Amino acid sequence: MMKHAAQFAPFALSLIMASSAQAQDPSAMLTDFLVPAYQQLAATADSQIDAMETLCQTPSETNLHTAREGFADLVSAYAYAEPVRFGPIKQNDRLERLYFWPDRKSTGLKQVQKALVGEDESVLSVDSLQDKSVALQGLNALEYILHGALADKLKTDANSHACRYGETIAQNMWAIADQMVVDLVAEDGLIAQFENPQERSALFRTEEEILKISFETFSHFPEIISATRLNEWAEEKPNLNVLPLRRAGLSMKLVLRDIEGVSAAFDAFTGTDEHEEMLASAFDAYRFELDNALRSAKELSTHSNQEILADDALRKKVHYLRIVLNSLRDIANDQIAPELGLVVGFSSLDGD
Amino acid sequence: MLRRDFLKISGASFLTSLAMPAQEVLAQSEQIFASCVAFPNGQFGAVLLNEQGKLISKIDLPARGHDIALSTQKDKLIVFARRPGTFAILFGKNGKVLGEISSIEGRHFYGHGTFSADGRLFYATENDFENARGVIGIYDLTAQPIKRVGEFDAGGVGPHDLRLDPHSGHLIIANGGIETHPDFARAKLNLASMRANIAWINPSTGDLLARYDAPDQLQKLSLRHMALGGNGEVWIAGQYQNKSELPESLLANASPDNGLEFILMPEDDLAALHNYIGSVAASGDGEQVAITSPKGGSAYILDRHGNIIDRRKQDDICGVDYGRDRFQFSSGLGAFGDQTLDDLRFDNHLIAL
Q1: CB distance from B191 to chain A under 8 Å?
Q2: A143, CA 20 to 30 Å: which among A102, B4, B111, B220?
Q3: What is the arithmetic mean of pLDDT over B248-260?
Q4: Percent of chain B at pLDDT exceeding 70
């Protein structure tokens, strides 16, 4: 089923509007970054299924600890893959099924609590779970099961409803990640479409549009991190209870892995060939800020949210990180896009 | 609006209030347009210009604008901040600012609004973002300063464009269905469960008169922009929120009696819109409608039955309205009609005065 990245011959893009630009190979971002990222997510979800099964059958503090470590790995694998937000991840609300966030009104939490308290049987099979609210199906639901108010019962109650629900979520995430890989590498999958764009595609029809949709990862996603993962830190008195994955203590780990995903995707996008001087300079500027973001996020990820809140220097670091993330967006739009010959228009860039 | 009508409505003092170059431009003009723009220095504004792209007047804006509404009496305009902006500015055609509006706490504008029939009130689409509820804010333009005098429910989430039906006197609201909150910038918070609708509301009472939801197969179609034809036609243009597939349609006819009737375009043409219509405009006689897609770099003119009359390709094309005898288009790269202006980048919407 799986096709190795090396099987995909790179194709040279001839940009109509970019005679001076070094040709890019956007399919490398899929073959070298996205496919391995979702393979890793599938493998991590597979391990989490095992960890949850063990916990359900043999409840103990040790097995709960193992399941929680597996959850952290699952978050890590998801966050690494999520920067690329086009193609099959947009089908059937997969992105929201894997992780429903922002959840401003705690919709997910309320639904999960209701399912747990009522011991809803329909959340115990992947098929029926997939018919339910997206907020019940992914990381935020599993986080509450493993780290929420009732999590301690997982140490003692064998084959509990909550534990089996958690196992079903892991199965669901595995199914989505596995299908993602299939939809990327299939004969008519996204990689094949990149290599042979079709006039009737909803996503892209030309090589230039392929380049543009790939490029948008580096323009849009840093802003998404800032706006949906770090936004609360802009408040004078941040409310730690609304931070993503705060129960598991993974708020900043999520941000770090998001940025590491952007970094790896950017490496795949830019490739190793030499670029024309102005394009190389724009890529260098982006890489410089990306490294700044990585350094800051790495340091912040070693601290709890409470520690960051209590330390002015760390809060300033978060503020700095938000500035750098917005700077990445600007470098992408103002420096990289013109050198790639992309039309980043006033209206098409961010329409309304 | 033709120049003679423009001058007649604006009054003699209008001409003298313009600087000499603008007076000369006006003398040579057949048609006046207005649009929000970005200037070369990165600042934002709203401009009035003629069909040749020559500037008549302008105002500076504190941030990016979106749509401009012309009063029923055609003597005043209001320009709105782009969502989630909080300002709106009432101004005259000579660029004189007549009043400013700030959204109240807990609300922001969506970038669109419309004057009441007598020009005394203004209705604006607003987001009650803590409650994820769309509302229509009502503003008294005769008060100094302009006063918010009430509101009513928009009938859905994420109200965007709204128009006053000159025949019935009812407000027509395109509730885009997408929940946003300024804490999360422009992130869309409810894509999995979103549902757009078109609502007809009595502006005197706020009563919901009719409402039609997007059908199941178009659950992810955000119905956002609207154009009224001369014979009461209501055209609705949408933006599909699933980039991995083509929707059945992006354009509909709407009426309070028959609901939404979607226009089926040939698949190649639908694909060329890239799941996104940025603006829609109808001809004065109601016989034609134009739609633009900046993301697809394409625009279409259709007859009232949905048959394609003309296709055009242009990068970042978005603004469109019907001028004296044809549709005029503008782009975010400075294209305006047949010309390209070096010193202006046009925002999403263009209106003919």
Answers
A1: yes
A2: B220
A3: 96
A4: 94
What is the dihedral sign for C-alpha B224, B227, B228, B233? negative
Structure tokens that stand for A223 in this block: 């802003």
Mutate to test the interface with A, among B109, B130, B184 (most CBs of A within 10 A): B184
The DSSP call for residue A23 is P
Residue B130, SS3 per DSSP: coil
String of DSSP letters for B287-319: SEEEEEETTTTEEEEEETTS-EEEEEE-TTEEE
Task: Name the residue among B178, B196, B202 with its Cα closest to residue B256.
Answer: B202
3-state secondary structure of B147: strand
Element containing residue A278 per DSSP (H, E): helix A277-300
Residue A10 lies in a domain: no
d(CA A147, CA B155): 39
Q: How far is the C-alpha of A49 from the C-alpha of B328, rounded, in Å? A: 59
Task: Tell me: do A178 and A75 sit in the same domain.
Answer: yes
Residue where the block lists tokens 């036609």: B233
Coil, strand or helix at B188: coil
CA distance B59 to chain A (A): 19
Full domain range(s) for residue A156:
28-191
**Among candidate residues A191, A211, A246, the one where a domain is terminated:** A191
Could you tell me the CATH number of the domain that includes residue A92? 1.20.1420.20
Q: Which two tokens stand for residue B234?
A: 């209501």
Closest CA to B31 of B329, B342, B334, B322: B322
Q: What pLDDT, in 10s, does the model give residues A115-151?
A: 999 999 999 999 999 999 999 999 999 999 999 999 9
Is residue A297 located within the same domain as residue A283? yes
Question: Where a domain ends, among A140, A173, A191?
Answer: A191
Q: Is residue A7 part of a domain?
A: no
Rounded distance between C-alpha atoms, residue B222 and residue B213, angstroms: 10
Pairing mode, strands B317-322 and B159-164? unpaired
pTM of the model: 0.88
Measure the CA–CA gap between B254 and B264, rounded to whole angstroms: 14
Same domain assignment for residues A299 and A217: yes
Spatial CA neighbour of A214 closest among A21, A8, A5, A24: A24
The answer to whether A347 contacts B191, with C-beta atoms less than 8 Å apart, is: no
Q: Are residues A81 and A54 in the same domain?
A: yes
B278: closest CA of chain A, how far (Å):
7
Query: Is the Cβ–Cβ distance between A29 and A265 less than 8 Å?
Result: yes
A78 burial level (CB within 10 Å; 0-12, 13-18, 19+)? buried
* Residues in chain A closer than 8 A to B239 (CB atoms): 351
Domain total of chain A: 2
Do A294 and A176 share a structural domain?
A: no
pLDDT in tens, A87-112: 999 999 999 999 999 988 888 899 99
State the amino acid at position B263 in one-letter form.
I
Round to whole Å and give the CA distance between B168 and B227: 15
